[in-house]
Amino acid sequence: MLHDVWYAACQAADVTTDPRMVTILDHPYVLYRSHANQLVAVDGYCPHRGCDLSIGHVDNGELVCPFHGWRFDKTGQCTRIPANRADTPIPKRFRLTTYPVLECSGMVWIYTGNQDINSSELPTARSFATFPELTDENWRGVPFQQTWKAHFTRVVESVIDVSHLPFVHPEVTGTDVDPTVDGPEYHVRENVIVIHPTPFAPSHPMEPVHPEQTSTAKSEIELRFPNQWIIRTPFGDHGMMCTFLTFTPINDHVTQIFGLALRNFDHDAPWLDDFHIDHTIRVMEEDQRIIESIRPKIAPFALRDECHVASDVPTIRYRVMLANALEQQSTRRSSSTQITCRGID
Ligand code: FES
Ligand SMILES: [Fe+2]
């Protein structure tokens, strides 16, 4: 799977000076806030005897293991071993690996890429990119999350699959629609796939109470490879409602979905929050039942392993992007290994 990615780990409000464990791609991370609210992400288990560091505590900005009291600073370096005399040197290798971490739109994101490569190649928070709606203060975002027992690939593919809409979500598309997908209308640029889910322009959840929404309003889906997705639906003359999702592979069997119900109007209308969230959760639960049933669990790269039609083109494009990204990741890792080996020689 792809490790060289920023994955959403949890809600930012859930990270405090109390260490918190999260798992991404089967790897345990501990998150906590150090001095001045600074986020720190480190390996989840102590290098001494493997104690779970999330049951430790933070003291004076340092993470303290609950088993023998070893302390680690925000760079992961062990700074104190209480069982040793204070002047006993601490080897450099007595440390926790740290990971790039940042906060954006109420979520904490961890870069889970290979920490063995030259640290100058690791991304900084500046390299993190998302959709403009997440960082523009004109947008209000209401968070939600779901856990699906399905592989990351199947979950992501489900949100760029247009032809399932009239079958899985008849309440959204209407029960009498022609299921023919003429296209679908889509384009790809760099790491983005944009799809217009025509002819299934979703009737908006607010339509009954806001009849001013025009029937010509066209929704747009955008997938920012590999794990961020948004659907934009024009609303009324100037407004827009969006649903943002990001996908985090916990392991090969479970994917965590973090979402935001976004709108750029009527920020102070709690009933709009509820309406948008309720609609989104209902649609997602319809998807979940289907996606968790899929076998094989991991989407196959070999085209002949499944049957494809024209409406599956965005999915195929995603698989090609994923295959290329995995190949680049593996090239980076093997060149990093060669450098390490040369260093040893
Ligand atoms: S296991 Fe952490 S200090 Fe011993
Ligand atoms: Fe769906």
UniProtKB/TrEMBL annotation:
<dbReference type="InterPro" id="IPR050584">
    <property type="entry name" value="Cholesterol_7-desaturase"/>
</dbReference>
<keyword id="KW-0560">Oxidoreductase</keyword>
<dbReference type="GO" id="GO:0016705">
    <property type="term" value="F:oxidoreductase activity, acting on paired donors, with incorporation or reduction of molecular oxygen"/>
</dbReference>
<dbReference type="InterPro" id="IPR017941">
    <property type="entry name" value="Rieske_2Fe-2S"/>
</dbReference>
<dbReference type="Pfam" id="PF19112">
    <property type="entry name" value="VanA_C"/>
</dbReference>
<dbReference type="GO" id="GO:0004497">
    <property type="term" value="F:monooxygenase activity"/>
</dbReference>
<dbReference type="GO" id="GO:0046872">
    <property type="term" value="F:metal ion binding"/>
</dbReference>
<dbReference type="InterPro" id="IPR036922">
    <property type="entry name" value="Rieske_2Fe-2S_sf"/>
</dbReference>
<keyword id="KW-0479">Metal-binding</keyword>
<dbReference type="InterPro" id="IPR044043">
    <property type="entry name" value="VanA_C_cat"/>
</dbReference>
<keyword id="KW-0411">Iron-sulfur</keyword>
<protein>
    <submittedName>
        <fullName>Aromatic ring-hydroxylating dioxygenase subunit alpha</fullName>
    </submittedName>
</protein>
<keyword id="KW-0408">Iron</keyword>
<dbReference type="GO" id="GO:0051213">
    <property type="term" value="F:dioxygenase activity"/>
</dbReference>
<dbReference type="GO" id="GO:0051537">
    <property type="term" value="F:2 iron, 2 sulfur cluster binding"/>
</dbReference>
<dbReference type="Pfam" id="PF00355">
    <property type="entry name" value="Rieske"/>
</dbReference>
<keyword id="KW-0223">Dioxygenase</keyword>
<keyword id="KW-0001">2Fe-2S</keyword>
